[in-house]
C-alpha cells in the first residue's frame, strides 16, 4: 500500500477546491523520486525543521529585549506560534495544512541577529539592499546543505518569499496557503509582542488604543481568537463568492492594522528601546566590516562565496546566519581588549 497516495487521495476528497493538492505541486527545481509515505509538502516541512538555520532561530531576537527571562519569545518560538495559528486557519478554511506548515516553519529562517536592527544594518551596507524574506530563500536554496540547498517545492518557496509586509498593494503568494501564513505572522507577532512588552514593563495594558482592543479583545487569547475566527469565516465567504483570496473583514482588519502601527510607533521603533537598538546595530556593523577588511578570516565556505559573488555577499551570508549571542561573542573577541598579566 502506498501511504502517500492515500494521503493525496484524502486531500482531494476533503480539501477546499481552491486548496493546493500535493499531487498537483508545480514541483522542484530538480526533479526527485516520490516517497511512499510523505507528500512533497511533508518532505519540505521536515527538511526545513532539520536545518542548522532553523535550530539557530532559538538564539535570535524576536523583539530586541535583552533579558535573562525564560518566557520571552525568540525567533524560534515566534515561528512555532505562527505555524500553530496558520494550521488552525488552514484547517478551518479547508486548505492544505502541510503546505501551510512548511511555509510557516521556514518563513523567518533568513532573519539575522538582533531582529530588524540587524536587517536595517545589512540593508544599508549591501549594494542591492537586504530583506529577510529574500534572504530566507537564499538560505534555503543556496546556503543550506553546504551550498546544495533543500530543493523545496515552488509553492513553499513562493509562500516564504511573500510572507512579509502588510501593504494592500504588495504582491501576494500565488497560493491561498501562502496568504494564510502572511496573516498568521501578523496575528502572532502583534499579540505576542504586546504580551512580551507588558511583561518587560515597556507598556501596560491601558496603553493599548481602546478603538482597536474594543474590537479585538482585551486579552491576548481573546484577540487571537477573534482574529482567527474572523479570517476563517471571512475567507470562506470570499471563496463561496469566487473572490479567491484570504483576508480579514474590514472592521477586524482595521483594528489589527491599527494595533500593529501602535506597536511600531511605541515599541519597535519607539524611544523605549532606542539605545539598545543602536548598540545592537553598532555591534553588527563592526563585525560585518571586520570580515569585509579581513576576507581571509572567513570560513572557507563563505570565502568561496566571496570570491564568486563578491566580498559583501560572502560576509552577509556568514554573519546573517549568526545568533545574537555568537555575534556578541565575536565582537568581544575582535574588539574588546584582553588583560594579560606578565
Automatic annotation (TrEMBL):
Sorted UniProt keywords: Hydrolase
Pfam families: HD, HD_assoc
Protein name in the entry: Deoxyguanosinetriphosphate triphosphohydrolase-like protein
Similarity section: Belongs to the dGTPase family. Type 2 subfamily.
Annotated ranges, domain HD: 75-190
InterPro entries noted in UniProt: dGTPase, Diverse_Catalytic_Enzymes, dNTPase_2, HD/PDEase_dom, HD_domain, PHydrolase_assoc_dom
NCBIfam families xref list: dGTP_triPase, PRK01286.1-2, PRK01286.1-4
UniProt GO molecular function: triphosphoric monoester hydrolase activity
Entry's transmembrane regions: none
Organism expressing this protein natively: Clostridium bornimense
SMART domains, alphabetized: HDc (SM00471)
Signal peptide: none
